[in-house]
Amino acid sequence: MAHIVLGDEFGRQFTGGQTHFDLDVRDVRHLIRTLEGMFPGIGEQLEAGAIAIDNEIIPDPWLNPIQPNSEVFFLPPIKGGK
Amino acid sequence: MSKFHITTTVNGEAVEYLCDPKQTLLDVLRDELNLTGSKEGCSSGDCGACSVTLDGRLVCSCLVLGVEMQGRSVETIENMAQGEKLHPLQQKFLEAAALQCGFCTPGFLVAAKALLEKNPNPTESEARYWLAGNLCRCTGYDKIIRAVLETAADMRGSK
Amino acid sequence: MAGYEDKSFKWIGTRPVRPDGVDKVTGRANYGADMKLPGQLTGRILRSPHAHAKILSIDTSKAEKLPGVKAVITGKDFPEMHNGVLPGDEGVNFHYLSCNIMARNKVLYDGHAVAAVAAASAAIAEEALALIEVKYEVLPHVIDVDLALKPGAPLLHDDIFTTGVTPKPEKPSNTVQRIQMQLGDPDAAFKDADVVVERSFKTKAVHQGYIEPHAVVAEWSEDGQCRIWCSSQGHFMVRTLTARLLQMEVAQVRVIPAEIGGGFGGKTIIFIEPTAVLLARKAKRPVRIVMSRDEVFRGTGPAPGTSIDVKIGAKKDGMLVAATGEFRYQAGAFPGSPVGAACMAAFGPYALSHVRVVGYEAVTNRPLCYSYRAPGAPLSSFAVESVMDEIAQKLNLDPMDLRIKNGSKEGTQMVYGPKLKAVGNLECLKAIQNHPINKIPLGPNQGRGLAAGFWFNLGGQSSAVVNIAEDGTANIMTGSPDIGGSRASMALMAAEVLGIDYSKVRPIVGDTSAVGFCEITHGSRVTFATGMAIIQAAEDVVLQCRQRVAKMWEVDVEAVKWEDGHARPAGANAGDQKPLSLAQIAAKAARTGGPLVGSAAINAGGPGPAFGVHICDVEVDPETGHVTVLRYVAAQDAGKAIHPSYVEGQIQGGVAQGVGWALNEEYIYGEDGRLQNSGFLDYRIPVASDLPMIDAIILEVPNPGHPFGVRGVGEVPIVPPLGAIANAVARATGARMTDLPLTPPKIRAAIDAKK
Fold first, then answer.
1. If we measure between CA atoms, which residue out of C526, C471, C478, C480 comes closest to residue C500?
2. C705 versus C487: which is more confidently predicted?
3. Which of C366, C414, C717, C749 is most buried, judged by most C-beta within 10 A?
4. Do C653 and B138 touch (CB under 8 A)?
């Protein structure tokens, strides 16, 4: 199962404090759907940000595969300057 | 507001234009004569992007009025290369990557040319102070100053 | 795409003349304000003189009657947008964006646009602006972030409810959001520290200071299409946002990129383009709007001022045990401060098991705060690096040893979650440690300052086309504006893959109707991501060439390899064929299947973060408080420098901007909430005589996520200078100052206070 980490903010707003999850998911889309099923309303918020899968930051995640031993972090969006 | 008829010399050629009293030399060059190589960065004489020489003297063309140009002579960036041959400063700026966005570059080249005509062997400090009226936000000035000093050395060597 | 592969290069790493160079040294290059269409009118914008006021009425009738005035518009001419962020909006609140471009019921800052005119000349347009009568009811304003965060502060919007706090607030406030990220348990870990330093910092808003003011020419045609010529950091961004704000279909808007005279993040959003389109539509003539420098300062997107608390604890030997930071960032009149990135980047150079960052963002009566090179990071880094320096002083440790001992490296977990892959932080630290500057003795009133910095870098969407001409030369096209030499790096990468001479590759920046989508030139992404698209498009051409030659030789494509710009037999069984050059293959293109066109459209991942370490020597004049920067050395991990001169240029330019931020630059507001220094005379950016040569050291720790090992380089060089200069001044004067900029009066006061 992949290890999923949400920011504290999601814990406060949606999950009753839980920020670490072990989930059996195929890809980012499946992961967000799974979390939306557990915590209605969270999906839209999660889609607004970036994701790191196995330490690789992905700005527009959706179809990116998640391996059974992957570690996934949800991040706020990042703006750049130059 | 009636316009003034001005006869002047631009890049060695006689030129006539009509301008209103509020138009600067920079406005005239860019809007009336279509010489857009001189850039407008501030219109207050602080950035040097509009540098030209007026009767041989380096000026900010945004601080000169179009109506003041009667019988004068102005040289702009457009006349710096001679035919197909770039001026040594232009060539050195290219080779030394002394430009990034390139917006301040015409002003720097005109100002640097004026420096080397006055002082063919400037110190780094002299070059920095002479060019202190030209703002560049991209390069940190390092490669610009090096390019000017190297061109000065090349030009002295070739004489 | 395959990841990094160690190989030797023919073109990558060389320093040829840039392809657009001659145009830029002769004055021929066309920037935003250089465009001129037949019948073009001059557009001008009327701006609010008040920091915060209700608009009671706008009477444009006198202006409209002035001969030569062809159009006048106000906020009423703009479509009303949904107030919120919908899925697919990419995080943009179009209501706010529209209200920033033209005020509706309220003006929210000095310089906020309230009306615009198009007229036959600049003089008439200005006369018309003076004839527009706006009645205001002036409201109390708030400029400072700490004051804006307080309950009871003048309220800018009645629809902002702080996110990130529980319970959800019932009342609106200026506080847009609170964010928090944490590793371990810093509160408990501080108990193990032998020394704890906690300091508060204040910094002022600064401007990106690009020399080219924003400029646009817009043309509207009767079939509902419009064309826009403008300089920006992304013409696709201009197209999308303009189309959305004017409720047009995206493909009806064509944006043609001008050369861009600097941006540094400030041209990653629009300010005047929809206004120019509406004026052109109403006037039925093309309209050009060029901002004055005053408008650039008052009405664009400067970087925020901040208020910051940082606390770091360490053991006697210098090992860091815990750190916390609270970062309060101005947002300008609408949400959008970079506080999230600031929090994430603050402690980036250090490996910390127990760390917490908290960020607040508050709207203030200032122009929209927008991106400026590594948005948010220079400020949070300044605070962290100042405290690190004080820890070193308290423990009597070398500041370099302290940083190396705690330096983040491959495997370090960042506060925002993921662990670092291969990065060059320690390599940069060691390069500075071994630099001869350390051996130069310091004189009286001189100090040496050190700071490290981190930036994420971005990848993202890019498209590229490689067209091979019949003689084997190549035209390559991307949609990424060239802000500092990227055409050269694109051409180098294409030449490398195709195996042809650099001079045979001509790059252009295509308009929105000519080339596939490219995200804005930001986040240090172009050489990395658009470069990756160029590499793939060139590889596409190579594959096509091998396929054509396989047909000619009547072999399988695997039997044809590509080497030095030639198709060659891959092995003995391919036959004894003579190598064919790209030119020879191109000459036969018609007979082997048609034109050779390679293309790629990607969403590049794996940008690989950048680290930079800076050291500088300053001398402080104790009489005047003036700081002279004597020496400056900056080391940076570029992954792989495609054109090293332009990498050095990025480093040197970032340093200069950072030095200005540290010493000179600030938005100064009066009690009336009006900006007092909206020109280059009073907002003084560094000039040539303010700076020494800047020694830029490029290190190359290949980015595993790029075939050539490239990392973005444009942003991280502005992160360390604020801390490096402040630390040098602190050591030169013996007084630690926590408010930027370090102006002579502040330095004099600090020296006097110490006596």
1. C471
2. C487
3. C717
4. yes
Q: Where are the domains of chain B?
A: 4-76, 88-157
Question: For residue A67, is it within any domain?
Answer: yes
Torsion angle, alpha carbons of C171, C177, C183, C188, to 10:
-40
Range of the domain at A40: 2-75
Asked whether residue A80 is domain-assigned, the answer is no
Nearest CA to C635 out of C510, C725, C719, C729 is that of C719
Find chains touching chain B: ≥3 CB pairs under 8 Å: C
User: What DSSP state is assigned to residue B62?
Assistant: G
Asked if residue A46 belongs to a domain, the reply is yes
Inspect the interface and report whether the beta carbons of B36 and C30 lie closer than 8 Å: yes
* Calpha distance C664→C660 (Å, rounded): 5
Q: Do A9 and C373 touch (CB under 8 A)?
A: no
Question: Which residue does chain A place closest to C414, by CA atoms?
Answer: A55
* Closest-CA distance of chain C to residue A6, Å: 9
Q: Find, among C157, C186, C600, the residue nearest to C365 by Cα.
A: C157
Tokens of C597: 């066109």
| Residue C40 in this model has a pLDDT that exceeds 90 | yes
Instruction: Decide: C367 and C302 in contact? Cβ < 8 Å.
Output: yes
Pair C253, C237: CB distance under 8 Å: no
| Contact between residue B91 and residue B82 where contact means Cβ atoms under 8 Å apart | no
Residues of B in contact with C17 (CB under 8 A): 94-95
CA-to-CA separations, C55 to C102, C130, C300, in angstroms, rounded: 12, 17, 21
pLDDT at C90 over 80: no
* Cα-based angle C106, C112, C115 (whole degrees, multiple of 5): 85
Chain A residue whose CA is closest to C416:
A75
Q: What is the pLDDT of residues C379-421, one digit of tens each?
A: 999 999 999 999 999 999 999 999 999 999 999 999 998 999 8
pLDDT at A79: 56
- Which residues of A fall within a CB distance of 8 Å from C608? none
CATH topology of domain C306-457+608-754: Aldehyde Oxidoreductase; domain 4 (3.30.365)
Lowest mean pLDDT across B27-36, C203-212, C698-707: C698-707
**What separation in angstroms does the CA of C614 have from each of C382, C400, C433, C660, C720?**
12, 11, 10, 15, 6
Q: Could you report the predicted ipTM of this complex, rounded to two decimals?
A: 0.98
Mind telling me how many Å the CA of C241 is from chain B's nearest CA?
A: 24
Question: Which CATH code for domain B4-76?
Answer: 3.10.20.30
| CATH code at C459-604 | 3.30.365.10
Distance CA C634, CA C628 (A): 17
Q: Is residue C2 very low, low, confident or very high in pLDDT (cuts 50, 70, 90)? A: low
For residue C552, the one-letter residue type is M
Match domain B88-157 to its CATH number in 1.10.150.120, 3.40.50.880, 3.40.50.1100, 3.30.70.330. Answer: 1.10.150.120
CA A54/CA A71 separation, integer angstroms:
5
Calculate how close chain B gets to C126, using CA atoms only, in Å.
12
User: How far is C209 from B49, CA to CA, in rounded Å?
Assistant: 14
Q: Are C442 and C584 in contact (CB under 8 A)?
A: no
Taking contacts as CB-CB distances below 8 angstroms, the residues of chain A near C459 are 59
Classified by CATH at the fold level, domain C32-139+213-260+267-299 comes out as Aldehyde Oxidoreductase; domain 3 (3.90.1170)
Cα angle vertex C29, ends C28, C30, to 5°? 110
Residue of A nearest to C713 (CA): A82
Cβ contacts of C268 within 8 Å, gap of 6 or more: A79, A80, A81, C232, C233, C234, C237, C370, C371, C520, C521, C522
Q: Do A73 and C417 touch (CB under 8 A)?
A: yes
CATH of the domain at A57: 3.10.20.30
